Amino acid sequence: MSSTIESAEHKALRTAVAALGQRYGREYLARVAREGGHPDELWADAAKLGYLGVNLPEEHGGGGGGIAELAIVLEELGAAGCPLLMMVVSPAICGTVIARFGTDDQKRTWLPGLADGSRTMAFGITEPDAGSNSHRITTTARRDGDDWILTGRKVFISGVDIADATLIVGRTEDARTGRLKPCLFIVPRDTPGFGRSVIDMELQAAEKQFELTLDDVRLPASALVGDEDAGLLQLFAGLNPERIMTAAFAIGMGRYALARAIDYAKTRQVWKEPIGAHQAVAHPLAQAHIELELARLMTQKAAALYDAGDDMGAGEAANMAKYAAGEACVRAVDQSVHTLGGNGLTREYGLGSLITASRVARIAPVSREMILNFISHQTLGLPKSY
């Protein structure tokens, strides 16, 4: 089956997840965020129905599907106004990395809980001085007997307060070359020396952002995920799903905003006809819909390539999908707010806060400029400027 035409199973999954999303909706998520809580009820329901672990192996309690299925879940929850940001991190990045590269013991310890939602994991890569440049990561891991000692700082790490552990990207020294290479470590939340402080964000979301400090954090040998020498491969095995899921998150948000604007444009009457009859209102909404659909096509392609094991092809497509979805989301939200006029900025209609939220997909997990850099030199073969 071509990845551009959705299978009956995927359509059924969309319908089922959309029904769950409708039971909660945007008002639920907005209330949870206002009260400083977490969307525990929705998370538990999504887990119970098998949606959170749909991409994880069946032998460890998952659904045996792939990122394609997980992206559908997130997109449809987003389109209903209640996306779960921790899906990007816990099952998509951490679950995938452990399923692909973890030891049998790590898989047994973590995957069933990540699949049934009873455990969550955060992901720590971004640093204050490195930004999108993962080659500048300064969090280092050194051996001490059989243990590892981790030292460094991370910033903009989602959900550390609710996560049982954080998958930390550090760097170890290659014994042969002396160069630093990336490695992944599971750091349980209560590990001595592992500190966190909340970052005060303008963005109102249930998931808080944290700065982390790792002050000589001692970890057993079993905390290292995968092979010490395959760090980069393992890292991108997590980053490609992150980009695909961010694209799904953005498409869902754009669809939600657009649906509100379409409803409004059909019923709002200022002259004889509803405002949606005027092309100056209708055409930009049609354009936004087209852009979201195109972004979804690239997201489906990226997920299909990733699930087929084509890491290189998936890398290019995942970056393109994230770029396209981020742009489409920002434009859809902007046009939707504009369609509602003053009502677009009221709490009643719930679109104003999406102006801030929609920017996230342009900035994280990698900026649009770094994606353009990647496409420039990887796809087009142009020289690097950095």
Q: How would you describe what is shown here?
A:
- Strand 2 and strand 3 form a beta hairpin.
- This protein has 386 residues and is α+β, with helices and mostly antiparallel strands.
- The protein has a four-stranded mixed β-sheet with strand order 1-4-5-8, with helices on one face. A four-stranded antiparallel β-sheet has the order 2-3-7-6, with no helix packed on it.
- It has helices at 8-34, 40-48, 67-79, 86-101, 104-116, 231-267, 279-307, 311-340, 352-363, 368-379, and strands at residues 121-124, 140-144, 147-158, 165-173, 180-188, 194-198, 209-219, 224-225.
- Name the shape in a single word: globular
Strand content: 5-15%
Radius of gyration: 21 Å
Number of beta-strand segments: 8
Specify the helix fraction band.
Answer: 40-55%
Q: Compute the separation of the termini in Å.
A: 41 Å
Compressed to H and E, one letter per element, the order equals HHHHHEEEEEEEEHHHHH
Structural class, judged by helices and strands? alpha+beta
If helices are DSSP runs of H or I spanning 4 or more residues, what is the number of helices? 10
Could you give the order of strands across the largest sheet?
A: 1-4-5-8
What is this structure, in a nutshell?
This protein is α+β, with helices and mostly antiparallel strands and 386 residues long.
Topology:
Blueprint: H1 8-34, H2 40-48, H3 67-79, H4 86-101, H5 104-116, E1 121-124, E2 140-144, E3 147-158, E4 165-173, E5 180-188, E6 194-198, E7 209-219, E8 224-225, H6 231-267, H7 279-307, H8 311-340, H9 352-363, H10 368-379
Parallel strand pairs: 1-4
Antiparallel strand pairs: 2-3, 3-7, 4-5, 5-8, 6-7
